[in-house]
Predict the 3D structure of the following.
Amino acid sequence: MSELIFELSQKDRCARAQIPFIANEKTDLPSELLRKDIPLLPETSELQVVRHFTRLSRRNFSIDTQFYPLGSCTMKYNPRGVHRVAMLDGFLNRHPLALETQSQGYLECAYELQEILKAVTGMKGVSLTPMAGAQGEFAGVAMIRAYHRARNDIARTEILVPDAAHGTNPATAAQCGFKVREIPTDAEGNVDIDALRAAVGPQTAGIMLTNPSTLGVFEQKIQEIAKIIHEAGALLYYDGANLNAILGKVRPGDMGFDVMHINLHKTFATPHGGGGPGGGPVAVSERLVPFLPMPIVTKTAEGYRWLTQDDCPQTIGRLSTFMGNAGIILRAYAYARLLGKEGMHRVAEYATLNANYLLARLKKAGFTLAYPTRRASHEFIITLKNEAKELQITALDVAKRLLDYDFHAPTMYFPLLVPECLLIEPTETESKHILDAFADVLIRILHEAKTHPELLKNAPHNLPVRRLDEVKAARELDLVYRPQTQCTIENISS
Amino acid sequence: MPFIPHTEQEVKEMLAVIGATSVDQLFDEIPASLRVKDLPPVPPQLTEMELSRLMRARAAKDVSALNFMGAGAYEHHIPAAVWDITSRGEFMTAYTPYQAEASQGTLQLLYEYQTMIASLMSLDVSNASMYDGGSSLAEAILMAARTHRKNKTHRILMPATVHPLYRDVVKTIVSQQDIEIVEVPFDLNTGKITIDALEKISKENITALVIPQPNFFGMLEDVDTLTDWAHAHQALVIGLVNPLAMALLKPPGQWGKNGADIACGEGQPLGVPLASGGPYYGFLCCKQEYVRQLPGRIVGRTVDQQGKQGFVLTLQAREQHIRRAKATSNICTNQGLLVTASTIHMSLLGPKGLRKVALACHQNGCALKEKLNTVQGVRCVFPGYFFHEILVEFKKPVETILTELAQHHIQAGFSVKKYYPELGNALLICVTETKTPNDLDQFVSQLERACLN
């Protein structure tokens, strides 16, 4: 049981070295503008704080401590050298609104990352400002909307989304004011072309696709799809969540996509921080360049400078107060320089090798593949529908049991169209050794399912907590700590 | 090969298990015409040593200066422990806590964060973070529109004293939907919003009033009066605040008779370095009755099978991965690591320490204002109460002042000319607890010189 930091709190304790000295606590401000109660922040010593949060950190799985084959999330190693250079004083202390003449170091890195991303995506323009994949999607769909409007083509009210898509795709289309129409998937895991033809029309603004898809297979008819969509006057959006599978091998621009986002926290190895920050730069083909979100860095004879709304009147505008997750942009840049030209395609090659190797081992051991006739990309799906029927074991049970063996679980129950599924993405930075160990454990769990099913049903056994009651969490909402004895209002300047 | 552990022998063994002859064969489902033949012009790979040297040179080009620039990003002392602990691999390299049992560290921390920030705002609940201040205001407005069901169309009253870049972000995000943003002009004498200005606006379908505290000019708005006015017109109140200032100033939940309904803003002043503008994080809090309209991740406390306390992501039926096109927002990844830093920062300072930091900022601001009043050619534009930013007007072009001070390694402030041409050669100056009396004297004497030249 880990105490809450509030339970360590003692009135009048504080980390005094951190607090500025002030001669007196008098203020000219009138009482009606001032706070009179004490906010519920803990009153603790520096050591208590350090120990509490260090101990909390040890209750996490992470890439640094565990294999983390979370499908669609690309949990690869986050190089320490990259983190180190992004934390250099010059970068950390730069004010976002500092004069351009005082900011040439940062601007040069951002400009060069824009160029690298153009090169690996086959696109003509890049804006680094979206702060996560979902914001990149928002920027992309807003650009599609702006493009049609600029042509006075205002009847396009629908965005097509395959049923296997990430949830952010339909959510983004809706947030941009579009109706969402789902396109089914065929038995081989490709977009159902006949259904696509039937759905496309003058009302279609665009389609959002991931390739390789979330089913872990390459959409082979992508050129035909691009043709159908473009002939209807609509545009193609590429969800870059799976870019790791094709980096340096195939480029979305060459496949016919008009706009895409890149998840820097996936393909470009920036740390995910337990839920962010991410980075979701957008890249576009020629016709969407005027609509890119601001700001963008440009190179002139006098040096690097920002392009703003004044330079690009058709821009969809600004998505972040300043220029997005600038520190993540620096990290992605540093990682790209460490990989270099030689390293880009190796990412896709070894990510694919690892996925296919793990798939082959699990297939031999009797696991059911969702798409057995297809080549896996950087990830693949196993379905436990047979085990669910015969042994009453669910994907959730297997996932929780994996935690007991010190492996993070794969993505569960996504994509939604495959029953009892686990989506497994090992990434290129894992060794054969760890893949073998993971396969061995999955095989062992399958055996346990037959001999000691309760080991799975009651898993996890070895973690700080047992399986948690999510229903109770949602029904009896407890989102903030409330102390037994309420803090009384008092004169806090005493 | 950087970050790839495979030996040649292992690759051979793996291919044999797969039944393939080469790695290239694994890409055989991709049409040959699409394959990249030659890699595009990406620079050759660097070693870590070469990269360090390159980046040190780049970082040195970002000139360091005595900083008096604020305008939404503030220089504060960050205790060493904050980023030492935040940078631990267990926090930094974890994913979103989908597997709750394997993520209790992050989840408990987020629960503690929600408690601290909600209490700092004096509101009931908080989510686990948004991207930044600007996007949190946009999401607060979308949330108000979802909440205010009585209005068929939505008009949001947006004071011109809200940060101009925030207003740009709101325009980009909100304009995709049927929401009208109505700008409320400010009083040129006080730099604040007045009831008179609000009264001149049509009262139809007002969904929410945004109240910045402090506002973009650093001035303190009459939050009680504004809040009560909005509620009297059946509008929600969105408080856009500096969270550090709320340790000293009346927080949104206590404004007027009933308190603001939603609070949002930029979390950066609580332990996040300036770092070119990000990653920062946005916070978003509200009254309990609106919790189901909050966007983004929310952590809840619950129990495990044995009745032991534990934490999970909750109310996920609001979110994109469940609700898809009907989700409250498309947000997925947020800014978890920055919230980690902020939670540690708030814990180290505690309620009284945080209040002292806020007070030190304000006292330094007062001291600077007094000194500025003695400088020829400089005029403090607005009288009245402020937090830690001061708008000053020069007789000379503000660009000249900025360039001259930059030559003396002083970042003098943010020119607001582009956004408020009616204010002339105006510069927004910020002073925090990091400045000593000496720093202030040096700044003022350089300003004096620049004004005379």
User: Anything to note?
Assistant: Chain B touches chain A through 202 residues (CB under 8 Å).
